[in-house]
Amino acid sequence: MSKIIYGERIGKTTPLVVACDGVIFDGTKHKILLTKRTDNGKWCLPGGKMEPGESASECCVSEVLEKQAWRWLWNVWLAFTLRRLHR
Length: 87
Fold this sequence. Notes:
With 87 residues, the chain is α+β, with helices and mostly antiparallel strands. 34% of the residues lie in helices and 11% in strands. It has a two-stranded antiparallel ribbon with strand order 1-4. Strands 2-3 form a two-stranded antiparallel sheet. A hairpin with a 6-residue loop joins strand 2 (35-36) and strand 3 (43-44).
């Protein structure tokens, strides 16, 4: 049965956005991967906005890979910089 709800509505003042998050476990399945948000500093699951024509599974994979690619590049840069400093 449907119910009419009165009052403020989600999406009334801003557009709705479809997003996906992915859960990545470590080898022991005791830890999950979290990323730190740049806008508010809180920890969250890796994910992001779904692009037009993208499925939910494609969105999850692309967002997780995107977040992990930046993390990998940062680690490589940091290791390279530290190595140069300690020569």
